[in-house]
Amino acid sequence: MLWIREINTAKSEYEASFMFELFWIDERLKWNLNYFNITGITINLNNLWYPKQRVHAMVTNVITNMDDLTAEINSNGRVRGNNKKK
């Protein structure tokens, strides 16, 4: 999702924010629901491996606050990473 925050036509510039979500399966994060009655957990994304991404565009002043990234892990190993703090 992309939000245009400001447009400066005189300078041909704009400021935008975006939100992204990543989904992947990590076999190492699976657990058996018969032993643990927990269907999912949410942790800070800094605490586990995740696929690295790149933004391919001409951008300046990129701010990435890793503290705002979370990961929701399900018992089947499905991980949902995003930049919206829960």
Helices and strands, with pairings:
Layout: E1 2-8, E2 13-18, E3 21-25, E4 40-44, E5 70-74, E6 78-82
Antiparallel strand pairs: 1-2, 3-6, 4-5, 5-6
Question: Can you walk me through this structure?
Answer:
With 86 residues, this protein is mostly beta strands. It has one domain (20-82). 0% of the residues lie in helices and 38% in strands. It contains no helices and 6 strands. The strands form 2 sheets. Strands 3-6-5-4 form a 4-stranded antiparallel β-sheet, with no helix packed on it. A hairpin with a 3-residue loop joins strand 5 (70-74) and strand 6. The relative contact order is 0.29. The model has no long low-confidence stretch (mean pLDDT 78).
Order of strands across the biggest sheet? 3-6-5-4
Helix/strand order: EEEEEE
Number of helices: 0
- The count of strands amounts to 6
Shape: elongated
Radius of gyration: 17 Å
Count of domain modules: 1
State the share of residues found in helices, binned by percent. under 10%
Mean pLDDT: 78
The amount of beta strand, in percent, is 35-45%
Helix and strand content put the structural class at mainly beta
Distance between the termini: 17 Å
User: Which spans of ≥5 residues are poorly predicted at pLDDT below 50?
Assistant: none
- Could you describe the largest sheet, including whether it forms a barrel? 4 strands, antiparallel
